[in-house]
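Case study: Thioesterase family protein.
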Amino acid sequence: MMSAFYLPLGDDTFRSTTHTVGPWGPDSQHLGPPSALLVRSLLATGRSSLSRVTFEVLGPVPVADLTVSTSVERPGRSVELLSATLSAAGRVVLTARAWHIVGSDTTAVAGGDPSPMAPPSTATPMEVPDYWSGGYLAAVEWLSVSGGIFTPGDAQVWARPRVAVVDGFEPTPLERLFSVVDSASGVSSRVDIRKWYAINTDLTVHLHRQPVGEWVGMDARTTIGPDGVGLATSVVHDVEGPVGTTAQALFVRER
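Here is what the predicted structure looks like once written out:
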C-alpha cells in the first residue's frame, strides 16, 4: 500500500491514492487530505504558522491527479493573507484563504483555554462497522474518549494519521491537524450516513497556538436545524491542551 495520501508528480501536481477515499463513494475524497495538501502548499510559501484557514468546497474532490496553486493576497510585516486553490482537470474544486500573523512573545498574558481533553492513553479504539472500511477511515488511527463516528451525538475523539500527506515527506503537526479536523462533523454526526447526507460546504479553523506532536483531539458537537442546515463545531486539542476551534456548515438531506 502507498504510504501517503498523495504522490508528488512535479509542477505542483499530486496523484491521489486510495487513502483519500471518503464515505460518499469510491471516486470522491474525504476533505481531510486535500485540506492538508493546501495547508502544506501555504506553508511552502515560507510561513511557519497560520492563525485562521477557511476552505470553500466548490465540488467533490475526485480521487485523481490534482494541481495546487498559491498566492499572497495581502503581504505585510505583521499580518498576511494567503490563498491556495486545488484543481482537477482544470476545474477548481477547493479553495483556501489563510491569515498568517507574525509571532511575538505574549506568554505574560496567555490564557483562557478551555479544559484539556483526557489524553490518548486513556482512550479506546473506535470500532469500525463493515459497511465503511478502508480508504481515509483506515488511513487514520481513531481513539474515543466519548462517542465517535458511529455513535450519534457529541464526541471527544483523538485521531492520528497513519500515512504522510505527500509521499517521501514527513508531515508537520499542522499538516496532521488539517488531515483530520474536517472529521469533527463526522465524529459528532447525529444521522446515519447510510440514510442521510450531512456534507459540509466549508471548513474554518482558528488556531491560537500552533500544534505539536502526532495526535489531534476533537471535542465536537453537531446541531441540525429544521430546514436542512446543520452546524458542526469543535475545540481542537493536541497532547498539551486546546489549540483552536473549527466550524462547518452542513447540507443535510435524506438520501
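For the exam, be able to explain this: Residues 59 and 91 are 9 Å apart (CA to CA).
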